[in-house]
Write a structure and sequence with these properties.
Shape: globular
Structural class: mainly alpha
Helix content: 40-55%
Number of domains: 1
Radius of gyration: 11 Å
Order of helices and strands: HHEEH
Distance between the termini: 30 Å
Strand content: 5-15%
């Protein structure tokens, strides 16, 4: 999954996703100079971000 696809999945901007990557707050893989996201890793990451209310 690329940055644009993750932005759509998170309902946010590509700029925000790039910031998450820069701050190493989201799991990603570098393939050359490309940044890619494993959908399984993202699902686990989203689950870990939940806040009990």
């Amino acid at each position: 999954m690329d940055i644009d696809a993750l932005a759509v999945r998170l309902a946010t901007t590509t700029r925000h996703v790039r910031r998450l990557v820069a701050e190493k707050r989201v799991p990603y893989v570098k393939v050359g100079h490309f940044v890619r996201f494993d959908p399984c890793d993202i699902a686990v990451w989203i689950e870990a971000q939940k806040v009990d209310g």
